[in-house]
């Protein structure tokens, strides 16, 4: 019997032999759905409207700020622990290897996107923000605010890690107030001495390009995008792999970049924490043309290539009753027989609002007009 609330009428069926499975077919007419009452928009109390507006205005930048701060805490913290623990006066046992640093940055990126993804989009990278504004229509008016929040997140994240390890840094450097690039590399990238300027630029360009390209693929709903909520896992694996494959050369300690905010924000903090002008003058303003300019151009190139050759925003996902959970929600009371098949009756053309199925017994709870007859 059909579910309560439906009207039915029998459909004539061709004569079947006694050996065939008996199939009961009914045309189901969905009931009319009652109109939902209109809801008035929420209006906060008068005294709280100003605070409410301020909160809404800073919500997205704050998500970017906190995301980058957490990103740097995990990554720079892993860098510091692995390197500082090589000094026996700091730790009796070495705490980690190069892969530990890659895990730190990868987990930090995943946590950052989980924190900010549903609020601001989870850019946590000025190169990604600029690429989305150039190629995907992200509002340019938001770009300066996003980048400022991202850089400040890097400053705060580096400050928290520095506060955590300040005494170990003193021991490692040989005294309070002694600060060199040996520990500055925990927070920002400084290329290895044997690299040429072109090689430094290419290393950051390539790493950021690969990262941006995978982000575009993983967020493309018309491609093999991961299920909702699993994008941070994809980014964790991506950055873990990039660190293992391409991260060695642009870190005198262990810190690769591929993100201008994660490099420049901590560099700002270092200049205020006693490391001096060397963090800027290193290799003729390396900080500007390598971790910032190379990363921005790498992201632009990657998103451009993806959008020109692969991205199709006008393509629509195919919808079928068997794959889309919002189309049919039914209760199958008996196993479908192998001989059951869809049947289309003659009056289907007269009334398209019927759904036909030759299930043995199937109670239809919901009907969707997009199901092809």
From TrEMBL:
InterPro entries assigned to the protein according to its UniProt record, in alphabetical order: Aquaporin-like (IPR023271), MIP (IPR000425), MIP/Aquaporin (IPR050363), MIP_CS (IPR022357)
GO cellular component, one term: plasma membrane
MF terms in GO: glycerol channel activity; water channel activity
UniProtKB keywords: Membrane, Repeat, Transmembrane, Transmembrane helix, Transport
Membrane-spanning ranges: 63-83, 103-124, 145-166, 194-218, 230-248, 286-309
Domain of life: Eukaryota
Catalytic activity: H2O(in) = H2O(out)
Keyword Membrane: yes
Subcellular localization, as worded in the UniProt entry: Membrane
Keyword Heme belongs to the record: no
Membrane topology: Multi-pass membrane protein
NCBIfam families linked to this entry: MIP
Family: Belongs to the MIP/aquaporin (TC 1.A.8) family.
Name the record gives this protein: Aquaporin
Species for this entry: Galerina marginata (strain CBS 339.88)
Lineage start: Eukaryota, Fungi, Dikarya, Basidiomycota, Agaricomycotina
């Amino acid at each position: 019997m059909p579910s309560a609330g439906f009207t039915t009428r029998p459909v004539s069926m061709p004569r079947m032999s006694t050996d065939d499975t008996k199939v009961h077919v009914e045309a189901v007419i969905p009931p009319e759905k009652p109109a939902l009452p209109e809801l008035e928009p929420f209006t906060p109390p008068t005294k709280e409207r100003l605070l409410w507006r301020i909160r809404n205005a800073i919500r997205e930048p704050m998500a970017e700020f906190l995301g980058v701060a957490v990103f740097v805490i995990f990554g720079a913290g892993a860098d510091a622990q692995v390197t500082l623990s090589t000094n026996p006066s700091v730790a009796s046992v070495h705490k980690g290897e190069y892969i530990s640093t890659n895990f730190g940055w990868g987990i930090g990126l995943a946590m950052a996107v989980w924190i900010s993804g549903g609020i601001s989009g989870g850019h946590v990278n000025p190169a990604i923000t600029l690429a989305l504004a150039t190629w995907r229509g992200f509002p340019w008016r938001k770009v300066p605010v996003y980048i400022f929040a991202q850089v400040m997140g890097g400053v705060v994240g580096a400050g928290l890690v520095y506060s955590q390890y300040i005494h170990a840094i003193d021991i490692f450097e040989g005294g309070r107030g002694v600060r060199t690039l040996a520990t500055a590399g925990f927070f920002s990238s400084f290329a290895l001495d044997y690299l040429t300027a072109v090689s430094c630029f290419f290393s950051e360009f390539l790493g950021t390009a690969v990262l941006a390209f995978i982000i575009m693929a993983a967020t493309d709903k018309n491609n093999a995008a991961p299920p909702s909520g699993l994008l941070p896992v994809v980014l964790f694996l991506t950055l873990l792999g990039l660190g293992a494959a391409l991260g060695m050369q642009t870190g005198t300690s262990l810190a690769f970049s591929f993100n201008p905010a994660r490099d420049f924000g901590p560099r700002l903090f270092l200049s205020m924490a006693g490391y001096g002008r060397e963090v800027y003058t290193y290799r003729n303003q390396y900080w500007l043309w390598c971790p910032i300019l190379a990363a921005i151009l790498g992201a632009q190139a990657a998103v451009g290539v993806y959008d020109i050759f692969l991205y199709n925003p006008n393509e629509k996902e195919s919808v079928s009753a068997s794959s889309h959970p919002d189309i049919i929600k039914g209760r199958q009371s008996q196993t479908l027989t192998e001989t059951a098949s869809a049947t289309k009756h003659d009056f289907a053309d007269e009334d398209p609002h019927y759904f036909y199925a030759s299930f043995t017994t199937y109670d239809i709870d919901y009907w969707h007009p997009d199901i092809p007859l």
